Amino acid sequence: MMQDLAMHILDLGQNSIRANAKNIEICLWIDDEKDCITFRLVDDGIGMDEDMQKRVLDPFFSTRTTRKIGLGIPFIKELAELCNGSFLLQSEVGKGTTLEITLQKSCWDTPPLGDVGEAMMMLIQADGTIEYVLDYRHHGEFIMKTTEIKEILGDVNIQEPSILLWLKEYINENIK
Amino acid sequence: MKSLADLQKIREQAQKRVNMREVGNEDYRVVVGMGTCGIAAGARVVLNAFMEGVNHDHLNVIVTQTGCMGSCTLEPMVDIYDKEGRKTTYIKMDAEKVAQVVESHLKNGRTLEMYTVNQR
Ligand SMILES: Nc1ncnc2c1ncn2[C@@H]1O[C@H](COP(=O)(O)OP(=O)(O)OP(=O)(O)O)[C@@H](O)[C@H]1O
Ligand SMILES: [Mg+2]
Prior knowledge:
The structure holds two protein chains of two kinds.
Chain A: H1 5-18, E1 23-31, E2 36-43, H2 50-57, H3 72-82, E3 86-92, E4 96-104, H4 116-126, E5 131-138, E6 140-145, H5 146-153, H6 161-174
Parallel strand pairs in A: 1-5
Antiparallel strand pairs in A: 1-2, 2-4, 3-4, 5-6
Helix pairs in contact in A: 1-4, 4-6
Chain B: H1 4-20, E1 28-33, H2 36-41, H3 43-56, E2 61-66, E3 78-82, E4 87-90, H4 95-108
Parallel strand pairs in B: 1-2
Antiparallel strand pairs in B: 1-3, 3-4
Helix pairs in contact in B: 3-4
The structure holds adenosine-5'-triphosphate (ATP) and magnesium ion (MG).
């Protein structure tokens, strides 16, 4: 269902948006030597209590009456397990949520990165008031901060289609 | 390779266009369903295609997103609202259909009935 990591970034980012996050940081670190991909999402949204954290991990919880619990988090957890990786969910009510998964890069089941620029563009498009940070490391380092972008843009909205489409290309060219 | 230095130029072009149109008085509002089911069904391609279309032809149209639209089997779904708030729902969209909807609905004001929810 989810063909690439960018799709998960978009999906999990949407969770943070719905949790009223004001800041969302996405780290994507690829370490060839350690044969490891690390994906981390940190938000300062409403967070989840312990009970909720347990429930979101269980896809079977949702199957009958409760359609409130969705698929996004179970998907990424399953992926981490499938790809010899790890899964970590930390959350505190009123503080925010951190989700971190690692994947074995060379594992057969590890999906391609996909269109990371597009995922970021779509998150900004979903809510332009949120400040996003993309921290991408592979050989070199590339950091995109919407605060910096907005400073350059001045009174031009970051959600202008031409700006968003430019950002997508900008990110993709720099993380290649 | 694009750098932040190039953004200044893009900004100036965008500003000219913003000044020419009336913000808050768009001809249409396009709402793309981007819940997990929508994303899995291909909503990314659909959102992209609308953004490209609107940007390419400088249409006075705003493109936005919403969460799960409630009918997973009809995804990717898109609602288009006109100035009076009338809604048209397009279902099972893809890039090709979006191109047609941009041309017909957004540019010429003609609903493409064959892709709407009524034609299911
Ligand atoms: N970052 C977050 N901050 C606070 N609550 C969250 C966060 N991510 C998930 N949740 C809670 O966990 C629930 C389950 O998330 P999950 O992504 O698995 O499904 P969903 O978003 O509800 O539906 P969908 O299947 O469309 O993703 C959410 O409805 C939300 O209540
Ligand atoms: Mg979700």
